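Hi everyone, sorry if this is the wrong subforum. Our group has a chain we'd like a structural model of before ordering constructs, and none of us has done structure prediction before. Sequence below.
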Amino acid sequence: MPVTVEVRGQAELRDAARDLRKERAQLRQRLVDATLHAVRPLEGLIKVGAPAFLPSGYAPVMVRTLKVTPSVRLSRGRRGVSLRVHAKGQKEQRDVEAVDLGMLRHPVFGNRRRWVEQGITPEFVTRPFAAMKPRIISELDDVLDGMRVRIERG
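Answer:
Right subforum, don't worry. Here is the predicted structure as tokens:
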């Protein structure tokens, strides 16, 4: 919904510019807060569901260090919210993306010189996210609608 603002004179222009900068900062903070609030349950949902997707010996290892980190971008051409799902390994980051695609690479009986790839049930991250996506979008839409109403009121 478009917003029309009429500005007359240099003083009003300066005030309007200041208000818009302030509003942009508040919008960013509200989006960050809403995103954090909306995605907070996702990490727990992924962790609770992991044993259904991952081998019994690996699920607790993956769940222990699994984190969901949201990112909010408001710059031109790169606006959006993204989520990074990651987990620490002993020496490097675990390949959460490959595991979500259904491929687990691991050493044979702990022998770190011999590795194998094992097919597992895919989408241990994708399915919980798909279930939560409507709620996350709804919460972010509510924040944007609230900001629109505040701007329209002046």
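For your construct planning: The chain has a mean pLDDT of 86. DSSP finds four helices and four strands in the chain.
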